[in-house]
Amino acid sequence: DAAEKGGYDYFMMKEIMEQPEALRKTVFPRMTETRISFEDISLTEEEIKNFNRIHIVACGSAWHAGVVGRYVMEEVSRIPVEVDIASEFRYRNPILNQNDLCIIISQSGETADTLAALREAKKQGVKVLSIVNVVGSSIARESDDVLYTWAGPEIAVATTKGYTTQLSLLYLVSLYFAKVRGTVEEEHLNEYLQELRLLPQKTEEVLKLDTKMAELAKKYAQSEDVFIIGRGLDYAAAMESSLKLKEISYIHSEAYAAGELKHGTISLIEEGTLVIAIATQERLFEKLVSNAKEVKARGAKVIAIAVEGNLAMEEVADEVIYLPKSGDIFTSSYNVLPMQLFAYYTAVERGCDVDKPRNLAKSVTVE
Ligand code: G6P
């Protein structure tokens, strides 16, 4: 058992630490310094140029990856994107158009609602491109095109390497579509590709926050409620972080778009309430500093996650975690990493069964 876990106490930690390698295996075969290779994909350049809309459909963490995917895809390829929870999409009678593309995301490739959503899209004549980890799974088999995340088997119920490898493929697809559609200048595209190649290495660097996050988890493990706030891509990270925390440590946690705080959640802030402010978006950084001030003034304890060089959180937050500079769209690959570690150590502190949280299944194959 210990050998299977590679010397770690839980599969989740083994899988967190496997992320750099999983990213290398997923991304590197599909790109060089200046090119993305999708030769095995049946979508033609003509089809890509004519996309009217993209529908990203998934469940759980894969849906959070989809939320990141929307920001990135719209930013670089200028195709309008809708992100749907599969169990909503399948019963909503979604409006699909011949020139739409459906992107299905699933680690297991067997989630019942996600598979049903795929079938709905196909029934309406829309092409399906899926991002899947398990080779030969139902979703992989029924899709028109499959991009595999080469994360290897994921055993812990809470996904880590599954999620971050999904993000890496969403970057690749978005950049590829942008290139075909000519929405990003060659020079910028190359900068993006260079940044993408640094993903494994920078992930490795960020995972060195391990000890720091263990300390913070020890300090805050007895929190009853945790609010995680962010804007843009940091809001997507807040949702994924909040899910991680509640899944395995059973602490009540909510993710909030930081601008919505004053429309409700701020009434819940009391002396000592933990607020985690994810503030890695350069152009939204100051806004998050203001939000952190607002909760701080009401007694909250604040942990901030910011990018190196942005020091303004130091004066507001109780703790600041720094991530390497990577440009706004790639921060999603890094901002979630300290939170994976934080959720893990919090669960350990609270004596929870990290790999097999109560009431949850790795793959939800029934409705
Ligand atoms: C379950 C897992 C989650 C996962 C979700 C979707 O709830 O616990 O970690 O994100 O299913 O699973 P899929 O295999 O479709 O990505």
Can you put this structure into words, describing what you see?
This protein is of the alpha/beta class and 367 residues long. 43% of the residues lie in helices and 16% in strands. The strands form two sheets. A five-stranded parallel β-sheet has the order 2-1-3-4-5, with helices on both faces. A five-stranded parallel β-sheet has the order 7-6-8-9-10, sandwiched between helices. Strand 1 (53-58), helix 4 (60-77) and strand 2 (81-85) form a beta-alpha-beta unit. Helix 2 runs parallel beside helix 8 (161-181) and helix 11 (210-220) crosses helix 14. The longest helix has 21 residues, at 161-181. The chain starts with 10 loop residues before the first helix and ends in an 18-residue tail after the last helix. The model has no long low-confidence stretch (mean pLDDT 95). 6-O-phosphono-alpha-D-glucopyranose (G6P) is lined by residues 59-62, 106-108, 111, 114, 157, 159, 360, 362-364.
